[in-house]
Amino acid sequence: MTQSIDVAAQEPGNVLTTLDELLRRPDAGFARARAGVPIGAWTLRVVVGALGCCALYGAGGGFFAGGAQIGIAAVKAPLIVAASALLCLPSLYVFGLLAGAPLTRARFVVTLAGFIGMLALVLVGLLPIEWLFSVSTQSLAFVVWLHLALWGIAILFGARFLRAALPEVPSSALLLWLAVFCVVCFQVTTVMRPTLWREPHAPVIAHGKLFFLDHFGRALR
Amino acid sequence: MTAMLSRLLHRRDELLSHILGPRPLGRTLFELTLLMAISAAGYGAVLGMWHGTRLAAYDAIKLPVVLIATSSFTVLFSWVAALALSVPLRFAQVAVLTFLALATASVVLVSLAPIAWFFTVCAPEPSTATRTTHNALYLMHTGFVAACGLAGTRALWHGMNRLGQPRSVVRRVYLLWVLGYAIVGGEVAWALRPFVGSVSPQFPVVFLREDALKGNVYEFIGRDIVPYLWSRQTP
Question: What is the pLDDT of residue A2?
């Protein structure tokens, strides 16, 4: 990540321009953090934008069932990503520090917000494809596979961002953390079930505890 | 303790220089032990909570005990092995390096505790019908502990590489230390079981099983696990 004082000076003013900047110059947030520019407002805009993108992606997924499920999935998707990030936040911090990355609070916040932002941007970029397949199939197993594939693509871009953000951390440690993050996302999705398909009059959040492998296994059957 | 946590995470080079220097290490050893015990207790509480607060409390005590006991049993061998292989370390330095690795592993473990906690609260209650859940939780905890152990030994490796000895010698000492620790740690953990707790009513929640010191983990592997795996392979 190259340092640039210009980037620090020209801070985008709204959510859309901030997300645009994250896509075009992913190092801009780091340059600001290094230059000592406060990153609170930037982080807030990235997080709000990311949650908005996740909501759009969730709504796209909700088109599989249609009706109220579009709104329900739009609420659940950002909750899934936010809860997973919160649960995995301490481990990323400790992994990063122990791997030798001189993580300041600002750099860590930019890293995490940028990772979530990149993930969400790729997801929203895949939204038209997701919508097309969601409205054109009646197979739950197919859409589950579709979402796993799309999630995998988004994670690849998120991993690329993390790799650039934390060059000191060995790839194996980052891969391990990403694997844990994915598994946590799957379990949070299971807790929030049903997201894609809900039986008529079924509760918005199902009762009972379930392991994600069982949940995904049932959905894929 | 927070000062030691900060040194461990942010100023590890300075900490290693202090450990490998000529100064007394009593306070450093105490602070590392305290950090390790509190972090391990935090993860231990999560480790046992699937079976309720009693096993959680037991594990919060037992996990630090496993680490401290294992270090106590191996530190003498580690020191002798280092000297025998021409690595001139003081006994206190060996002890502090061991606890540095353990404290590192424990801090990584406690950073994973929110994830382990989440999976545990999402798991169905323990019963004979939830054997798969038990196995999945067991696998998760084993994976976390193994990964954190590797992180701890990595810290040890970094420390040992600053000794100024040939890399091949350092590698031999490092492997001996890790091997000794793994062999003894496996047995200590086995003796202090249960940690996750069993789904079988035959094994209720206890602090220590009655047969804790009757047989060891390697006898168990040789007597039960290997013949079982062997019988599955033979048509």
Answer: 46
Residue A3 has pLDDT above 50, yes or no: no
Distance CA A18, CA A81 (A): 19
Task: Inspect the interface and report whether the beta carbons of A184 and B125 lie closer than 8 Å.
Answer: no
Q: Which residue of A has its CA nearest to B135?
A: A211
CB contact under 8 A, B122 and A208: no
User: Would you tell me which residues 119-158 of chain B have a C-beta closer than 8 angstroms to some C-beta of chain A?
Assistant: 119, 121-125, 132-133, 136, 147, 151, 154-155
pLDDT at position A119 over 60: yes
pLDDT digits (tens, 9 = 90+) for A67-113: 899 999 999 999 999 999 999 999 999 989 988 888 889 999 999 99
Give the number of A-B residue pairs with CB atoms closer than 8 Å.
62
Instruction: State the pTM of this model.
Output: 0.84
Using CB atoms, pick whichever of B9, B123, B154 lies closest to residue A97.
Answer: B9
- Between the alpha carbon of residue B58 and those of residues A110, B36, B42, B68, the distances in Å are 39, 17, 12, 16
Q: Is the pLDDT of residue B231 over 90?
A: no
